[in-house]
Amino acid sequence: AKQQGRNHYQYYLAPEKTEAQIERFAMEAMLRKALEKDELLVYYQPRVNTKSESVVCVEALVRWQHPTLGIVAPKDFIPLAEETGLIVQLGEQVLRKACKQIKKWQDEGMDELSVSVNLSPLQFRQQHLPGVIARILRQAGLKPRFLELEITESAAMQNVNRNILMLRELKEMGVKISIDDFGTGYSSLSYLKKFPIDALKVDRSFISGIHEDPDDAAIVNAIIALAKTLKLNVTAEGVETESQYLYLQQHRCDEAQGYLFGKPMPPETFEEWYKLNMREKDLMFSPDF
Ligand code: C2E
Ligand code: MG
Ligand code: MG
Ligand code: MG
Question: Which of 47, 113, 114, 210 could hold 146 in an S-S bridge, CB 3.0 to 4.6 Å?
Fold first, then answer.
């Protein structure tokens, strides 16, 4: 019976695999089309300065507006985009849209608003990346200091010597650089010291445990201390409760980002959110906006 069960399993495994392959091809074709047909949207999530309680920066987060599937989340297409190399084109579209949007908002009175944009490891490996970014900034009319590039810890720690050169080139242009999802990778602290970066973003997995897990609180405190020592700005990701926010404020974490303040929003919704929360210079917690 055991033997039969195994054969049974194998019999059904093969066609399933093919189906997955077909689906992958179909998805790849759809994604290619999405890039051509401009189906990508950029949502914006506020990053709140814990001292001034004002929004100094927004993170640009991509969404795919598929004609029949609706809004597709990054986790359902970024991995495929990475595997197929489409992420390079996708990432450039996001950068272009985000830079244009921020320039528009600055012109409309949000003078000092910056934007952070996620860079895929593949984009980061492109030798000509600084040139691409310089052109996008120029075309958008945005000053480089208003753009922050988020690279993941694991991307940063691969090919370190090359990365230092790349980061230096980007820094010389005047753009800012942060390490995203910090604490989940395997950072070498001696390399971190050598990286010309501006900020660390503490991964949200540590923030969610601040009050439940003493280890999480200890890690958050250690990352904040590390950032202070290296003179880096530090942002907490995934802040969902007021008590988490108060903890971070008390422990001198520079910025907080999370559903407590607002989810990633389309540009028009962010404008309303900003008016409501910032006009009064009094930050309200409006996660269900
Ligand atoms: P990330 O860069 O770490 O972005 C933060 C993610 O956490 C976002 O998910 C955001 O919606 C979510 N988040 C924010 N606050 C909270 C919270 O309080 N609670 C919870 N549970 N989640 C929160 P999103 O938008 O689904 O993006 C997921 C990931 O996809 C991003 O993680 C980033 O790695 C990637 N991604 C998004 N847009 C781009 C892009 O334009 N280019 C590249 N290369 N990657 C992108
Ligand atoms: Mg990010
Ligand atoms: Mg992150
Ligand atoms: Mg993440």
Answer: 114
